[in-house]
Write a structure and sequence with these properties.
- This protein is α+β, with helices and mostly antiparallel strands.
- It is about 20% helix and about 35% strand.
- The protein folds into 2 domains: about 35 residues; about 160 residues, no CATH class.
- The strands form 4 sheets. A 5-stranded mixed sheet has the order 6-10-2-1-13, with no helix packed on it. A 4-stranded antiparallel sheet has the order 5-4-11-12, with no helix packed on it.
- The chain is globular and about 95 Å long.
- The termini are far apart.
- About 5% of the residues have low confidence.
Length: about 210
Amino acid sequence: MKTKLSKKRAISTVLTTVIILVSSVVLGSGVVLYGTSLFQGGTQSEAISVSGSKMWVHDTASEGLAWGAAKIRNTGDKVISVDTIQVRGTNVPFSQWYPDTSVNATLFQQSLIHPGWSGTGGMLDATGATQCAVASTVQIDLTGDDVDTSSICANAATGPVGLSPGSSAIIYFKLTNGTITSLDSGASTTLNIFAGKAGAPQSITVQGQS
């Protein structure tokens, strides 16, 4: 006896197969797109390098007058904002940061120096770089050329310092009085410079400066 095949059953089988194939393609595409998105997001990173850091304290001032300086470069591929400078667990306020973000490669390679004290509230002597294009609170000639492109020319910051990928800055900063004192001359202290989560603690030897 011959069995008569149902046309409806045959059609259902074909539709089921098509649905499975379409679903597989859609799911496969979603996985590929998701994986690509994760890969692209993972390849972009926030990173900074901090080099040439210095810390100076007044040799005789009892109130603990001190400054620091550091060279910072954005080594990642995202725009970053340097938002923390901390010494011995004490944050340095933005108003005590003096950033120069227009430094060229030659200037960035120079050693950071202390130009001497101005004698007014522990500020730095600003007479060493007379060629700054705009009058600045911090003026330091690092190369001895006495030209604008060889000098740090900086005024107080008002917030985080933004840096594009590959860009550099030199920041001089005034510590809050008493953070370190003349007794710390020759000792090591901890300096933290961060842009968000990017950055790392550094150990720096405090230098006495008369």
